[in-house]
Amino acid sequence: MSVIKEEEYKKRRDKVAKRMSKNSVAIIFSATYKVRSNDTNYPFRQNSNFYYLTGFKEDNSILVLIKKNKKYKSILFINKKNKKEEMWNGKRLGVLKAKKRFLIDEIHISDKFQKKVSKYLEFKKNLYFDFKLDNSQTKLFEKIAKKINIHKNIALIIEKMRLIKSDSEIKLIKKAIDITKKAHHRLMKLDKIGKNEYELLSNIEHTFKSHGAYNDAYTSIVASGNSANTLHYIDNNKPLVNGELILIDAGCEYEYYASDITRTIAVNKQLSKAQRDIYELVLSVEKTIINMVKPNVKRSELHKKSEELLVKGMIRLGILKGNYKKIIKKQIHKKYYPHGIGHWLGLDVHDECPYKDENGAEIALKEGMVLTIEPGIYIDKYDENVPKKYRGIGIRIEDDILVTKDGNKNLSSAIKKEVIDLQS
Is 39 marked active-site? Predict the structure, then answer.
Protein backbone atom coordinates (compact mmCIF):
# COMPACT_ATOMS: atom_id res chain seq x y z
CA MET A 1 0.00 0.00 0.00
CA SER A 2 1.28 3.45 -0.92
CA VAL A 3 1.91 5.91 1.87
CA ILE A 4 0.73 9.49 1.96
CA LYS A 5 2.25 11.62 -0.79
CA GLU A 6 4.57 14.55 -0.13
CA GLU A 7 2.03 16.95 -1.66
CA GLU A 8 -0.41 16.13 1.13
CA TYR A 9 2.14 16.84 3.83
CA LYS A 10 2.89 20.18 2.16
CA LYS A 11 -0.82 21.08 2.12
CA ARG A 12 -0.96 20.37 5.83
CA ARG A 13 1.99 22.67 6.48
CA ASP A 14 0.31 25.31 4.32
CA LYS A 15 -2.82 25.09 6.49
CA VAL A 16 -0.81 25.40 9.70
CA ALA A 17 1.02 28.46 8.36
CA LYS A 18 -2.26 30.03 7.28
CA ARG A 19 -3.57 29.74 10.85
CA MET A 20 -0.43 31.25 12.37
CA SER A 21 -0.43 34.95 13.16
CA LYS A 22 1.72 37.36 11.14
CA ASN A 23 5.38 37.72 11.99
CA SER A 24 5.66 34.41 13.83
CA VAL A 25 7.70 31.21 14.05
CA ALA A 26 6.50 27.64 14.66
CA ILE A 27 8.90 24.97 15.89
CA ILE A 28 7.77 21.34 15.88
CA PHE A 29 10.11 18.71 17.32
CA SER A 30 10.38 15.04 16.51
CA ALA A 31 10.24 12.40 19.23
CA THR A 32 13.42 11.22 20.91
CA TYR A 33 14.47 7.73 21.92
CA LYS A 34 13.29 6.70 25.38
CA VAL A 35 15.61 4.72 27.63
CA ARG A 36 14.29 1.32 28.62
CA SER A 37 17.20 0.37 30.89
CA ASN A 38 20.84 1.38 31.10
CA ASP A 39 21.97 1.75 27.46
CA THR A 40 18.97 0.14 25.71
CA ASN A 41 15.99 2.04 24.31
CA TYR A 42 12.35 1.35 23.66
CA PRO A 43 11.49 1.03 19.95
CA PHE A 44 11.32 4.50 18.43
CA ARG A 45 7.91 5.95 17.61
CA GLN A 46 7.71 9.36 15.95
CA ASN A 47 5.83 12.24 17.54
CA SER A 48 2.41 12.19 15.88
CA ASN A 49 2.15 15.93 15.23
CA PHE A 50 5.62 16.06 13.69
CA TYR A 51 4.80 13.02 11.56
CA TYR A 52 1.48 14.54 10.47
CA LEU A 53 3.34 17.50 8.96
CA THR A 54 6.36 15.66 7.51
CA GLY A 55 5.85 11.90 7.21
CA PHE A 56 9.44 11.60 8.51
CA LYS A 57 10.33 8.82 10.96
CA GLU A 58 13.80 9.81 12.17
CA ASP A 59 14.61 11.19 15.61
CA ASN A 60 16.53 14.40 16.34
CA SER A 61 14.56 16.30 13.69
CA ILE A 62 12.91 19.71 13.82
CA LEU A 63 10.41 21.40 11.53
CA VAL A 64 10.42 25.21 11.50
CA LEU A 65 7.79 27.40 9.84
CA ILE A 66 8.62 31.11 9.57
CA LYS A 67 5.75 33.40 8.63
CA LYS A 68 6.11 36.99 7.51
CA ASN A 69 2.91 38.71 6.48
CA LYS A 70 1.01 36.09 4.42
CA LYS A 71 4.01 34.14 3.14
CA TYR A 72 5.96 31.50 5.01
CA LYS A 73 9.16 29.48 4.69
CA SER A 74 9.55 25.85 5.74
CA ILE A 75 12.83 24.51 7.14
CA LEU A 76 13.65 20.97 8.23
CA PHE A 77 16.57 19.93 10.42
CA ILE A 78 17.61 16.27 10.28
CA ASN A 79 20.42 13.98 11.40
CA LYS A 80 23.63 14.21 9.39
CA LYS A 81 25.02 11.10 7.73
CA ASN A 82 27.36 9.28 10.10
CA LYS A 83 28.75 5.86 9.19
CA LYS A 84 29.55 4.90 12.78
CA GLU A 85 26.12 5.85 14.11
CA GLU A 86 24.39 4.22 11.17
CA MET A 87 26.28 0.97 11.72
CA TRP A 88 24.74 0.75 15.20
CA ASN A 89 21.31 2.29 14.70
CA GLY A 90 20.43 2.08 11.02
CA LYS A 91 20.67 4.21 7.91
CA ARG A 92 19.81 7.90 7.93
CA LEU A 93 18.23 9.74 5.04
CA GLY A 94 20.75 12.58 5.00
CA VAL A 95 20.43 16.09 3.60
CA LEU A 96 21.01 15.26 -0.10
CA LYS A 97 18.25 12.66 -0.29
CA ALA A 98 16.01 14.76 1.93
CA LYS A 99 16.18 17.64 -0.54
CA LYS A 100 14.95 15.32 -3.28
CA ARG A 101 12.16 13.88 -1.15
CA PHE A 102 10.60 16.74 0.79
CA LEU A 103 8.71 19.72 -0.61
CA ILE A 104 10.44 21.95 1.92
CA ASP A 105 12.31 25.22 1.29
CA GLU A 106 15.46 24.52 3.30
CA ILE A 107 17.03 21.42 4.85
CA HIS A 108 19.92 21.51 7.33
CA ILE A 109 21.59 19.12 9.72
CA SER A 110 20.25 19.20 13.28
CA ASP A 111 23.60 20.36 14.66
CA LYS A 112 22.93 23.78 13.15
CA PHE A 113 19.54 24.28 14.78
CA GLN A 114 20.61 26.04 17.95
CA LYS A 115 22.66 28.59 16.04
CA LYS A 116 20.06 29.25 13.36
CA VAL A 117 17.04 29.39 15.65
CA SER A 118 18.34 32.62 17.23
CA LYS A 119 18.16 34.34 13.85
CA TYR A 120 14.72 32.88 13.11
CA LEU A 121 13.34 34.38 16.30
CA GLU A 122 14.74 37.86 15.76
CA PHE A 123 12.01 40.50 15.44
CA LYS A 124 9.27 37.86 15.70
CA LYS A 125 6.31 38.58 17.93
CA ASN A 126 4.88 35.08 18.32
CA LEU A 127 6.38 31.66 18.92
CA TYR A 128 4.41 28.46 18.38
CA PHE A 129 5.56 25.16 19.86
CA ASP A 130 4.14 22.09 21.58
CA PHE A 131 3.76 22.86 25.29
CA LYS A 132 3.53 19.16 26.19
CA LEU A 133 6.87 18.13 24.77
CA ASP A 134 9.66 17.73 27.27
CA ASN A 135 12.82 16.36 25.73
CA SER A 136 16.43 17.34 25.13
CA GLN A 137 15.59 19.10 21.87
CA THR A 138 13.11 21.52 23.40
CA LYS A 139 15.65 22.51 26.04
CA LEU A 140 18.03 23.65 23.29
CA PHE A 141 16.01 26.75 22.60
CA GLU A 142 14.24 27.45 25.90
CA LYS A 143 16.52 30.32 26.87
CA ILE A 144 16.31 31.85 23.41
CA ALA A 145 12.55 31.42 23.32
CA LYS A 146 12.12 33.47 26.48
CA LYS A 147 12.96 36.55 24.48
CA ILE A 148 9.57 36.27 22.80
CA ASN A 149 6.70 37.29 25.06
CA ILE A 150 3.83 35.56 23.28
CA HIS A 151 3.94 31.76 23.21
CA LYS A 152 1.18 29.80 21.50
CA ASN A 153 0.53 26.06 21.47
CA ILE A 154 1.08 24.76 17.94
CA ALA A 155 -0.40 21.41 19.00
CA LEU A 156 -3.86 22.97 19.23
CA ILE A 157 -3.74 23.95 15.56
CA ILE A 158 -2.38 20.62 14.33
CA GLU A 159 -4.65 18.43 16.45
CA LYS A 160 -7.76 20.28 15.32
CA MET A 161 -6.70 19.62 11.72
CA ARG A 162 -6.24 15.94 12.56
CA LEU A 163 -9.94 15.62 13.42
CA ILE A 164 -10.86 15.34 9.73
CA LYS A 165 -9.20 12.44 7.94
CA SER A 166 -8.18 12.61 4.30
CA ASP A 167 -8.93 9.78 1.86
CA SER A 168 -5.34 8.57 2.18
CA GLU A 169 -5.56 8.51 5.97
CA ILE A 170 -8.81 6.55 5.85
CA LYS A 171 -7.17 3.99 3.55
CA LEU A 172 -4.38 3.47 6.09
CA ILE A 173 -6.87 3.09 8.94
CA LYS A 174 -8.79 0.55 6.84
CA LYS A 175 -5.57 -1.36 6.21
CA ALA A 176 -4.83 -1.45 9.94
CA ILE A 177 -8.36 -2.68 10.62
CA ASP A 178 -8.07 -5.38 7.96
CA ILE A 179 -4.92 -6.76 9.59
CA THR A 180 -6.59 -6.55 13.00
CA LYS A 181 -9.54 -8.48 11.60
CA LYS A 182 -7.19 -11.33 10.68
CA ALA A 183 -5.86 -11.43 14.24
CA HIS A 184 -9.30 -11.51 15.87
CA HIS A 185 -10.64 -14.14 13.46
CA ARG A 186 -7.57 -16.28 14.08
CA LEU A 187 -8.34 -16.29 17.81
CA MET A 188 -12.00 -17.08 17.21
CA LYS A 189 -11.05 -20.22 15.27
CA LEU A 190 -8.27 -21.28 17.64
CA ASP A 191 -8.82 -24.19 20.04
CA LYS A 192 -8.43 -22.28 23.31
CA ILE A 193 -9.16 -24.93 25.93
CA GLY A 194 -6.08 -25.63 28.03
CA LYS A 195 -4.21 -22.60 26.74
CA ASN A 196 -3.01 -19.41 28.43
CA GLU A 197 -3.80 -15.76 27.72
CA TYR A 198 -0.22 -15.17 26.56
CA GLU A 199 -0.61 -17.84 23.87
CA LEU A 200 -3.48 -15.85 22.41
CA LEU A 201 -1.41 -12.69 22.68
CA SER A 202 1.41 -14.34 20.73
CA ASN A 203 -1.06 -15.20 17.95
CA ILE A 204 -2.19 -11.57 17.82
CA GLU A 205 1.35 -10.22 17.58
CA HIS A 206 2.37 -12.80 14.99
CA THR A 207 -0.61 -11.88 12.81
CA PHE A 208 0.11 -8.16 13.06
CA LYS A 209 3.77 -8.43 12.18
CA SER A 210 3.39 -11.05 9.48
CA HIS A 211 1.05 -8.68 7.62
CA GLY A 212 3.28 -5.62 7.81
CA ALA A 213 1.93 -4.01 10.97
CA TYR A 214 5.12 -3.85 12.98
CA ASN A 215 3.60 -2.07 15.98
CA ASP A 216 0.58 -2.57 18.19
CA ALA A 217 -1.57 0.56 18.34
CA TYR A 218 -1.59 -0.01 22.12
CA THR A 219 -0.78 -2.80 24.57
CA SER A 220 -3.19 -5.61 23.73
CA ILE A 221 -5.64 -6.85 26.35
CA VAL A 222 -6.38 -10.57 26.54
CA ALA A 223 -8.53 -10.77 29.66
CA SER A 224 -10.24 -14.04 30.52
CA GLY A 225 -12.83 -14.57 33.21
CA ASN A 226 -12.93 -11.95 35.94
CA SER A 227 -9.84 -10.22 34.51
CA ALA A 228 -12.14 -8.66 31.89
CA ASN A 229 -13.49 -6.46 34.69
CA THR A 230 -10.11 -4.75 34.99
CA LEU A 231 -10.36 -2.25 32.14
CA HIS A 232 -6.64 -1.88 31.51
CA TYR A 233 -5.65 -5.47 32.21
CA ILE A 234 -2.38 -6.18 30.40
CA ASP A 235 -0.85 -9.00 32.45
CA ASN A 236 -2.16 -11.46 29.84
CA ASN A 237 -0.77 -14.45 31.73
CA LYS A 238 -3.64 -16.46 33.21
CA PRO A 239 -4.79 -19.95 32.15
CA LEU A 240 -7.98 -20.01 30.10
CA VAL A 241 -10.82 -21.72 31.96
CA ASN A 242 -13.45 -23.71 30.09
CA GLY A 243 -16.81 -21.94 30.35
CA GLU A 244 -15.38 -18.46 30.79
CA LEU A 245 -15.28 -15.53 28.38
CA ILE A 246 -12.23 -13.75 26.97
CA LEU A 247 -12.31 -10.01 26.33
CA ILE A 248 -9.79 -9.24 23.57
CA ASP A 249 -9.00 -5.57 22.98
CA ALA A 250 -6.33 -5.54 20.28
CA GLY A 251 -5.52 -3.32 17.34
CA CYS A 252 -2.48 -2.79 15.18
CA GLU A 253 -0.87 0.33 13.76
CA TYR A 254 -0.16 0.46 10.02
CA GLU A 255 2.10 3.25 8.75
CA TYR A 256 1.38 5.09 12.00
CA TYR A 257 -2.42 4.83 11.71
CA ALA A 258 -4.28 2.93 14.41
CA SER A 259 -7.12 0.48 14.68
CA ASP A 260 -8.93 -0.27 17.95
CA ILE A 261 -11.14 -3.35 18.13
CA THR A 262 -12.65 -5.28 21.02
CA ARG A 263 -14.40 -8.61 20.78
CA THR A 264 -15.55 -10.89 23.59
CA ILE A 265 -15.51 -14.62 22.87
CA ALA A 266 -15.94 -17.85 24.84
CA VAL A 267 -13.07 -20.19 25.67
CA ASN A 268 -15.16 -23.13 24.42
CA LYS A 269 -16.93 -21.10 21.70
CA GLN A 270 -20.29 -21.52 23.48
CA LEU A 271 -21.94 -18.77 25.50
CA SER A 272 -23.99 -19.73 28.53
CA LYS A 273 -27.52 -18.31 28.88
CA ALA A 274 -26.28 -15.66 31.35
CA GLN A 275 -23.29 -14.74 29.20
CA ARG A 276 -25.51 -14.49 26.15
CA ASP A 277 -28.01 -12.26 27.98
CA ILE A 278 -25.35 -9.65 28.69
CA TYR A 279 -23.58 -10.10 25.35
CA GLU A 280 -26.76 -9.50 23.34
CA LEU A 281 -27.56 -6.44 25.47
CA VAL A 282 -24.14 -4.90 24.81
CA LEU A 283 -24.28 -5.79 21.10
CA SER A 284 -27.77 -4.32 20.72
CA VAL A 285 -26.67 -1.08 22.38
CA GLU A 286 -23.55 -0.89 20.21
CA LYS A 287 -25.59 -1.28 17.03
CA THR A 288 -28.08 1.36 18.13
CA ILE A 289 -25.35 3.88 18.96
CA ILE A 290 -23.48 3.23 15.70
CA ASN A 291 -26.70 3.94 13.79
CA MET A 292 -26.91 7.31 15.56
CA VAL A 293 -23.50 8.42 14.29
CA LYS A 294 -23.85 11.18 11.69
CA PRO A 295 -22.82 14.81 11.15
CA ASN A 296 -23.94 17.32 13.79
CA VAL A 297 -24.52 14.66 16.47
CA LYS A 298 -22.43 15.09 19.63
CA ARG A 299 -20.49 12.37 21.42
CA SER A 300 -22.23 13.31 24.67
CA GLU A 301 -25.55 12.46 23.02
CA LEU A 302 -24.20 9.06 21.99
CA HIS A 303 -22.91 8.37 25.49
CA LYS A 304 -26.13 9.50 27.16
CA LYS A 305 -28.15 7.15 24.96
CA SER A 306 -25.77 4.26 25.64
CA GLU A 307 -26.18 4.80 29.39
CA GLU A 308 -29.96 4.83 29.07
CA LEU A 309 -30.07 1.63 27.01
CA LEU A 310 -27.54 -0.27 29.11
CA VAL A 311 -29.21 0.72 32.38
CA LYS A 312 -32.66 -0.29 31.13
CA GLY A 313 -31.19 -3.60 29.99
CA MET A 314 -29.46 -4.21 33.32
CA ILE A 315 -32.72 -3.46 35.17
CA ARG A 316 -34.47 -5.99 32.95
CA LEU A 317 -31.82 -8.61 33.81
CA GLY A 318 -31.96 -7.84 37.53
CA ILE A 319 -28.40 -6.46 37.69
CA LEU A 320 -29.73 -3.03 38.69
CA LYS A 321 -32.95 -2.18 40.53
CA GLY A 322 -35.03 0.96 40.41
CA ASN A 323 -35.91 3.77 38.03
CA TYR A 324 -33.37 4.13 35.22
CA LYS A 325 -33.37 7.93 35.37
CA LYS A 326 -32.62 7.94 39.10
CA ILE A 327 -29.91 5.31 38.63
CA ILE A 328 -28.19 7.42 35.98
CA LYS A 329 -28.60 10.64 37.97
CA LYS A 330 -26.95 9.03 41.00
CA GLN A 331 -24.27 7.43 38.77
CA ILE A 332 -25.02 4.00 40.27
CA HIS A 333 -24.54 2.38 36.87
CA LYS A 334 -20.93 3.60 36.70
CA LYS A 335 -20.00 0.55 38.76
CA TYR A 336 -20.84 -1.57 35.70
CA TYR A 337 -20.28 0.90 32.84
CA PRO A 338 -17.48 3.20 34.00
CA HIS A 339 -16.08 4.53 30.70
CA GLY A 340 -17.24 6.67 27.81
CA ILE A 341 -18.87 5.47 24.61
CA GLY A 342 -15.76 6.07 22.50
CA HIS A 343 -12.90 8.29 21.40
CA TRP A 344 -11.23 9.76 18.32
CA LEU A 345 -9.05 7.39 16.29
CA GLY A 346 -6.21 8.17 13.88
CA LEU A 347 -2.46 8.64 14.23
CA ASP A 348 -2.93 7.75 17.89
CA VAL A 349 -5.32 5.12 19.16
CA HIS A 350 -6.78 7.79 21.42
CA ASP A 351 -6.27 10.40 18.75
CA GLU A 352 -5.04 13.59 20.35
CA CYS A 353 -7.73 15.80 18.88
CA PRO A 354 -9.93 18.26 20.75
CA TYR A 355 -13.39 17.38 22.04
CA LYS A 356 -14.25 21.02 22.65
CA ASP A 357 -13.71 24.18 20.59
CA GLU A 358 -11.91 27.36 21.62
CA ASN A 359 -15.03 28.55 23.47
CA GLY A 360 -15.41 25.34 25.46
CA ALA A 361 -18.36 24.07 23.45
CA GLU A 362 -18.46 20.40 22.51
CA ILE A 363 -17.41 19.67 18.92
CA ALA A 364 -20.14 17.93 16.94
CA LEU A 365 -19.40 15.10 14.54
CA LYS A 366 -18.39 16.04 10.99
CA GLU A 367 -17.79 14.13 7.80
CA GLY A 368 -14.31 12.62 7.83
CA MET A 369 -14.01 12.09 11.58
CA VAL A 370 -13.23 8.59 12.86
CA LEU A 371 -14.24 7.44 16.33
CA THR A 372 -14.73 4.24 18.28
CA ILE A 373 -18.04 3.02 19.67
CA GLU A 374 -17.46 0.67 22.62
CA PRO A 375 -20.22 0.02 25.18
CA GLY A 376 -19.51 -2.54 27.87
CA ILE A 377 -20.76 -4.16 31.05
CA TYR A 378 -18.37 -5.33 33.78
CA ILE A 379 -19.52 -7.35 36.79
CA ASP A 380 -16.96 -8.41 39.37
CA LYS A 381 -17.25 -12.01 40.52
CA TYR A 382 -17.39 -10.89 44.16
CA ASP A 383 -20.29 -8.48 43.63
CA GLU A 384 -23.04 -9.95 45.80
CA ASN A 385 -25.54 -7.28 44.70
CA VAL A 386 -25.87 -9.01 41.34
CA PRO A 387 -27.51 -12.38 40.57
CA LYS A 388 -24.85 -15.07 40.91
CA LYS A 389 -25.16 -16.22 37.30
CA TYR A 390 -23.88 -12.84 36.05
CA ARG A 391 -20.92 -12.47 38.41
CA GLY A 392 -17.47 -12.50 36.84
CA ILE A 393 -18.75 -11.54 33.38
CA GLY A 394 -17.06 -8.66 31.55
CA ILE A 395 -18.11 -7.84 27.99
CA ARG A 396 -17.11 -5.02 25.64
CA ILE A 397 -17.71 -4.76 21.90
CA GLU A 398 -15.85 -2.05 19.99
CA ASP A 399 -15.81 -0.92 16.36
CA ASP A 400 -14.17 1.91 14.40
CA ILE A 401 -16.66 4.26 12.75
CA LEU A 402 -16.17 6.81 9.97
CA VAL A 403 -18.56 9.76 9.88
CA THR A 404 -19.85 10.15 6.31
CA LYS A 405 -21.81 12.90 4.57
CA ASP A 406 -25.21 11.46 5.47
CA GLY A 407 -24.40 9.01 8.26
CA ASN A 408 -21.58 6.63 8.97
CA LYS A 409 -19.60 3.64 7.81
CA ASN A 410 -18.50 0.91 10.19
CA LEU A 411 -14.93 0.36 9.00
CA SER A 412 -14.64 -2.81 11.09
CA SER A 413 -18.00 -4.37 10.21
CA ALA A 414 -16.25 -7.40 8.67
CA ILE A 415 -14.94 -8.48 12.09
CA LYS A 416 -17.40 -11.05 13.41
CA LYS A 417 -19.47 -10.26 16.49
CA GLU A 418 -22.85 -11.98 16.06
CA VAL A 419 -23.44 -14.77 18.58
CA ILE A 420 -24.05 -17.30 15.81
CA ASP A 421 -20.66 -16.46 14.24
CA LEU A 422 -18.77 -16.62 17.54
CA GLN A 423 -20.23 -20.05 18.35
CA SER A 424 -19.53 -21.64 14.97
Answer: yes
Same domain, 156 and 258: no
As for how many domains the chain has, the answer is: 2
Is 406 one of the catalytic residues? no
109 shares its domain with 176: no
Residue ending a domain, choose from 127, 161, 195: 161
Domain at 225, CATH number:
3.90.230.10
Q: 126-129 and 150-153 as β-strands: parallel, antiparallel, unpaired?
A: parallel
Q: What span, in angstroms and rounded, lies between the C-alpha atoms of 345 and 374?
A: 12
Looking at 142, 167, 232, 406, which residue is catalytic?
232
Catalytic residue check, 128: no
pLDDT tens digits, 228-281:
999 999 999 999 999 999 999 999 999 999 999 999 999 999 999 999 999 999
CA quadruple 379, 385, 387, 389: dihedral sign: positive
Residues 35-45: tens digit of each pLDDT: 999 989 999 99
Report CA-CA distances (Å) from 97 to 93, 100, 107, 123, 348.
6, 5, 10, 33, 28
Q: Is residue 211 annotated as part of the catalytic site, yes or no?
A: no
